[in-house]
Amino acid sequence: MIAFVFAVALALCILLIIASLRLLSILPDRRSGPVTEITQSSRIVEITTPARSHVLFILGSGGHTAEMFSMIQSLSPESVTHRTYVFSSGDKHSARKAQNHEESVYGNAAAGEKGMEGPGAIGYRLIEIPRARAVGQSWLTTPLTCLICLSKCMDILRGGDVSALPRQMRELWKGMEFPDVVVCNGPATAVMLVYAVYIYKFFGMCKTRVIYVESFARVTTLSLSGKLLLPVADRFLVQWPQLADKYQGAEHLGFLVS
Amino acid sequence: MAPQDSEPVADRKVFVTVGTTTFDGLIQAVLVPPIISMLHSQGYTSIRVQHGESTEIYQACLTPELEAELAKCGMSITAFAYADSDEITEEIKFAELVISHAGSGTILECLRYQKRIVVVPNRSLMENHQLELANEMSKQKYVVKGNLKNIDIAIDRSATYPYRHFPRTGSKVFAEVLEEELDKLDKDTMYG
């Protein structure tokens, strides 16, 4: 009996060690990453982006969404061929902003229709997910809603909704389910989605990289989402130098909104 | 931004906005005869107020004295409670001076359209990061910061203040970061 308990304990220990090592191997190593001294104009970036790329943008409430579209307005239409916009349930404003953005940058009228026409415009998806925490929601029920949100995030990441797309679009999204890069700037939903990314990364199912941008409104302290995502984001960008001085791993490249 | 002498009849609008917050104090501080008179002397011809839920406060501000001052200055005043962000953008676009709460969204819109802006932090709000933003933006000369007690000083300053232009390069910097990350992934799949 003692031998059995000992064996189980040993097995658990080994499992824990392996899991920790795995986690360490997927967590970002930003020390060797880009340094903060990169200036805005002196760099020449050789653009060799893959022929097909999928970026997922997480939209938050009004302010976050406005900052997001202000930030991504200069992406060249060719660089991101597949785009997913995730917005919280009921947030029609963000959904409409995403459509406006697609229309102005890619000339797309609506997802699934003209979304596949035009140079570089392979398509975009607009996905609604339940909120991790509603404004004013009790902290008691928050773990439950967070779990529901997390499971929906996991479903989105593996492309659970792709089969429901129109046939033509389904073809285009096949094999592109996992995003190459996730871009987020603050909402609680973003935290859930990034954690979902890590669950898949843990099991080696995706290589998604995470870019987090702290809101322009944050000058000296990180938001709660920022604090939660600082250890896991591959790039953690802040828009005020005070934050880069204060938090290790935060990168300051100047204002990103414009 | 400078007054156009060649178009003397043009509407020069002041936009007062509280965003989605409740900020009675800002409305009460601006809608008084001395401020109206000051705005008139700076060449403004109309006032547009976005007052949020403070409809009653706004109406209470329209005293006979205020109406008399407006009539004397030949200025008009209009107001509304809320509008969606696109409509607020339009209001900002057609305004020459914006007197605003310290919301980052409004500040950014004003900077985008290079408007004179007077920012008044709402000290009754719990979140003090709005105050930090207002302080930092005013330190860097992007905005003029005022407070409720002497908003006249801030409005007076705004007329000749050398506002700094906000850089328009942010989204290009971000595009570079995103392309770097897509690049890394490309190499990962090729060699890793």
Automatic annotation (TrEMBL), chain A:
User: Which locations, inside or outside the cell, does it occupy?
Assistant: Endoplasmic reticulum membrane; Nucleus membrane
User: One GO biological process from the UniProt record?
Assistant: dolichol-linked oligosaccharide biosynthetic process
Q: Which domain of life is it from?
A: Eukaryota
Locate the transmembrane regions by residue number.
none
Q: Name the membrane topology term.
A: Single-pass membrane protein
The cellular component terms of Gene Ontology attached to this UniProt record, alphabetical and capped at eight, are:
nuclear membrane; UDP-N-acetylglucosamine transferase complex
Q: Which UniProt keywords apply?
A: Endoplasmic reticulum, Membrane, Transferase, Transmembrane, Transmembrane helix
A GO MF term: N-acetylglucosaminyldiphosphodolichol N-acetylglucosaminyltransferase activity
| Function according to Swiss-Prot or TrEMBL | Involved in protein N-glycosylation. Essential for the second step of the dolichol-linked oligosaccharide pathway. Anchors the catalytic subunit ALG13 to the ER.
Subunit organization: Heterodimer with ALG13 to form a functional enzyme.
The family note in this entry says:
Belongs to the ALG14 family.
UniProt-recorded name of the protein: UDP-N-acetylglucosamine transferase subunit ALG14
Q: What is the source species?
A: Orbilia brochopaga
Gene transcribed to yield this protein: ALG14
From TrEMBL, chain B:
Which keywords label this protein? Endoplasmic reticulum, Glycosyltransferase, Transferase
Give a GO molecular function annotation for the protein: N-acetylglucosaminyldiphosphodolichol N-acetylglucosaminyltransferase activity
Q: What class of enzyme is it?
A: transferase
Q: Which residues form the Glycosyl transferase family 28 C-terminal domain?
A: 14-142
Keyword Cell division listed: no
Q: Which GO terms describe its cellular component?
A: endoplasmic reticulum
Q: What is its EC number?
A: 2.4.1.141
Give the GO terms filed under biological process for this record. Answer: dolichol-linked oligosaccharide biosynthetic process
According to its UniProt record, where is this protein mainly located? endoplasmic reticulum
Query: Subcellular localization, per the record?
Result: Endoplasmic reticulum
**Which domain of life, per UniProt?**
Eukaryota
Q: Which reaction does it catalyse?
A: an N-acetyl-alpha-D-glucosaminyl-diphospho-di-trans,poly-cis-dolichol + UDP-N-acetyl-alpha-D-glucosamine = an N,N'-diacetylchitobiosyl-diphospho-di-trans,poly-cis-dolichol + UDP + H(+)
Q: Which InterPro entries match?
A: Alg13-like, Glyco_trans_28_C
Pfam families membership: Glyco_tran_28_C
Q: How does it assemble?
A: Heterodimer with ALG14 to form a functional enzyme.
Describe its function.
Involved in protein N-glycosylation. Essential for the second step of the dolichol-linked oligosaccharide pathway.
Q: Which family does it belong to?
A: Belongs to the glycosyltransferase 28 family.
Q: How is this protein named in the record?
A: UDP-N-acetylglucosamine transferase subunit ALG13
Organism lineage string: Eukaryota, Fungi, Dikarya, Ascomycota, Pezizomycotina
